[in-house]
Every structure is written in C-alpha cells, then in structure tokens.
Amino acid sequence: MTKNFKLFSESIILAAIPALGYWVAFVYELGYFNYFELPRSFIEIALNSVLLNSLSVVSGLFFFFIVFDFIRRAMSGVTEALRYILYRLLFVCFLVFGFGLIFDKPIEQIQVLLFIVATPIIFKDILWPLWSHRHIKGFGNKIAAARKQDLEFDSVTDKLVEKAGIAPFLIVIFIYLFSIFSYLAGGYQANKQEHFLTSKERPSFILVRKYNDKWLSLKVDVVSQEFHETYELIPSDKISVFSNTNIGKLKKRQKDNSTGGSGGGT
C-alpha cells in the first residue's frame, strides 16, 4: 500500500525550520557584509546563530499569519481585485522604505522613489481600468472586470497557486518576505552601528567577524568616520587586547586611492 506524500508533514516541517534558520542568519550577514563591501565568502554561520534564527522563523511565521489574517479581515469589504492591488502596493512600500532606511536616505527621497515605483501600478491597475471599463457601473466592478480580463491570460504565479494551493504559496511568500527583512535588518544594523570591536595591535582596523582562526578586519578612519575598501585577515594569536570602541556610524570613504582589500593577514 502506498502512502500519499504530504508536503507539510511533521518531519518535513521539523527539518525545514533549522534550514530556514541557517538561511535567515546567512541573509542577515549578507546584508551586513554588503554594507561594508566585504566578500561574502568570509561569512560563517555559528550553531547558536542557527538556533536563535530558527526560533525567530517560528515566531515570524505565527506573526506573519496573524498580520495576514488581520489585513484580510480589515479588507473584508473590499473586492478581491482591489485587495490584490493593495497587497502589491503594501509590498512596494515595504521594499522602498526598507532599502531607504538602510542607505540612510532622507524621507523626501524615499517618498519620491515610492512615487516613481508605485505610480505605474496605480495607473495600470486602478486608473486605466476606470477608463477602459468606464461602461461598467461602480468603482469596484471596473477593477474586478479589468482583473478578470487579465486572468484570461494566466500568469505563472496564478498557475502555481492553482496547482499547489494557497498554503504553500503563502509559505513561499513568507520565506521571501522574511529573507528580504533579514537582509534589510543586517544592512540596517551595519548602518546604525556605532560601537565596534577593536584591538591594540591594529588600532586603524575594526574587527568585523571571526573567520576560522583569524579575524576579518576592515580599515577605518576614526576621525572622518569612514571605512576603506581595505580589509585584512588577522591571525587570532596576534591580537591580545580587545576593546569595544565607540567610533560612530561609519560610511564609505568617498575618495580612496589605496589598493583593494588583501586576502590574508600579516
């Protein structure tokens, strides 16, 4: 007798949680490293980081479904077609404001970028249906008619949802959003961090992360609060005195004539 394969069986869920925990930790570090323009090949994920992020995945999954259910209930009186458009606009706002905060952009620039990105969606999915389906009465009916016309040509997403069902689709959306959130969190942490681990032996370098038996360090200018494109791998046995130094928020050095980063320490 053959057993039906269950996509969300208990064993698969238990195996997926630590895998997602590792992925979330990696994406967070990726956002942190990319801010300082450090090679991603030096990213190492510790076991305790995987465990902590596994807990965050479980908590985030519950929170995601609570928020999704709240939004769904809040939009109970809205037509399905208009609800789909609002979801897209919320996602665009999440991305634009997230990346804007990471790169420390003024709120005015974030608003301009949001306007540039959101305008095509508003025009195509809201304004254009009001004109193209003007013969239909009711705002929601016009949007629904345009959406129905678009669905005559099924997109890849529509076919996947139809075949797999809504639950797997929501899981994929959760992983995608949580990955973006983790990347943004890593970049935001790098952008806002003011205290850095330093050493007496390398006062002009900050110790970013431990890599094998070495420290991945990045050259900084304490006076101008800028980081260079130069990095070093410093053996751990050459560092004896550590300190937690308040350097302030670091930004990339605008004019750096020094040679690119070195792959090994001295």
Describe the structure.
The chain crosses the membrane at residues 12-30, 50-72, 84-103, 166-185. Keywords: Membrane, Transmembrane, Transmembrane helix. By secondary structure, the chain is of the alpha+beta class. The protein folds into two domains: 10-191, no CATH class; 194-252, no CATH class. The protein is 57% helix and 14% strand. The protein has helices at residues 10-35, 47-74, 80-102, 107-132, 139-150, 156-164, 166-192; strands at 195-199, 205-211, 214-221, 226-235, 242-246, 251-252. A four-stranded mixed β-sheet has the order 2-3-4-6, with no helix packed on it. It has a two-stranded antiparallel sheet with strand order 1-5. Strand 3 (214-221) and strand 4 form a beta hairpin. Helix 3 runs antiparallel to helix 4 (107-132). It is elongated and about 75 Å long. The termini are far apart. The relative contact order is 0.12. Residues 1-5 and 256-262 have low confidence and may be disordered.
How would you summarize what this structure contains?
With 266 residues, the protein is α+β, with helices and mostly antiparallel strands. It has helices at residues 10-35, 47-74, 80-102, 107-132, 139-150, 156-164, 166-192; strands spanning 195-199, 205-211, 214-221, 226-235, 242-246, 251-252. The protein folds into 2 domains: 10-191, no CATH class; 194-252, no CATH class.
